[in-house]
C-alpha cells in the first residue's frame, strides 16, 4: 500500500474533571476540544490519531470519564499509551472499547496494530508512582520479538517518555532508566521509522538506534525552553501543537503543526509575479 497515509500525534492532554484548571492556569479541556475540532477539519484529514501519554492529570476515573467522550468526537480512530500522570487500570477500564489495549490486569499497556500501511506498536514506559520512564526486560524481549516477526513492514513505536536526555534540567532528573537497552533493540530493526514520544511538552528530535525519536508538543501548555542545569519546573502558554506524520510509501515526513487561529494565509505572488 503506497498511498499517502497521515498520522496525527497529540500528547500531554493533562485533562481534569469538574472543569478545573490544570495547575490553576490551563484550561486543558478547552484546549483538547480545539485540538479535536482542528484535526477533524483538516484537508486532507488525518487517517488516525495517536496520543502519546499524560492523557489526564492525576489518573483518576472521573478524569478519564471526561476524556473518553472528547476523544470519541474524533472522526478517525485514535490509539493511546499512558504517561506518568496516568493510571493503567483506570485507563484500561475507561477505554475498554479500545480493543487493541491488553486486558490483563496489572500488565503494561503494550499493544500492536497491524491494519495500516505502517505497523503501530504502543509501549507503556511508565513506572507506577514515578515520573521517569523505563521498559522492563520482559517488554524489551516482547518488542524485539514483535519487530523480528515482520522486518519488512515500516513501523512506528509510540511511547510517552523520550529515551534520551533533553537538556532541560528538571525533566532530566528522572530520565529513561534503560534507554541504552532499548536503543540496542531498535538498532537491530531498521524498519523502525520513528519513536513517537511526549512528556517534554516541546518539539524535539534525536537520532536513536539508527531511527529518529520525535517528541510532540503539548495540546495546551509547553515546558519553558531553558537549558540551564538549574532550570526550574516552569511552563508557559506558547502556541499548542501537534505532529503530523506523512507516509507516502517511500518514507515518513514529520511536520510540526500548531493549534489556533493566526493571521494569514497571504499570497507570495500577485498578477505581476513575486510581491514586492
Overall description:
By secondary structure, the chain is of the alpha/beta class. The chain has one domain: Metallo-dependent phosphatases (Purple Acid Phosphatase, chain A, domain 2, 4-Layer Sandwich), CATH 3.60.21. The protein is built from six helices and 15 strands. The strands form four sheets. It has a six-stranded mixed β-sheet with strand order 4-5-6-7-9-8. A hairpin with a 2-residue loop joins strand 14 and strand 15 (273-274). The longest helix has 14 residues, at 28-41. The chain is globular. The mean pLDDT is 96.
CATH superfamily: Metallo-dependent phosphatases
CATH architecture classification:
4-Layer Sandwich
CATH class: Alpha Beta
What do the pLDDT scores average to?
A: 96
- Helical content stands at 10-25%
- The count of DSSP E runs of length 2 or more, i.e. the number of strands, is 15
The whole-angstrom Rg is 19 Å
Uncertain segments are none
CATH topology name, in short, is Purple Acid Phosphatase, chain A, domain 2
Q: What portion of the residues fall into strands of 2 or more residues?
A: 15-25%
- Class of secondary structure makeup: alpha/beta
List the helices and strands in order: EHEHEHEEHEHHEEEEEEEEE
Query: How widely separated are the two ends?
Result: 44 Å
Largest sheet strand order:
4-5-6-7-9-8
In DSSP terms, counting alpha (H) and pi (I) runs of 4 or more, how many helices? 6
Molecular shape: globular
User: Main beta sheet: strand number and arrangement?
Assistant: 6 strands, mixed
Number of domains: 1
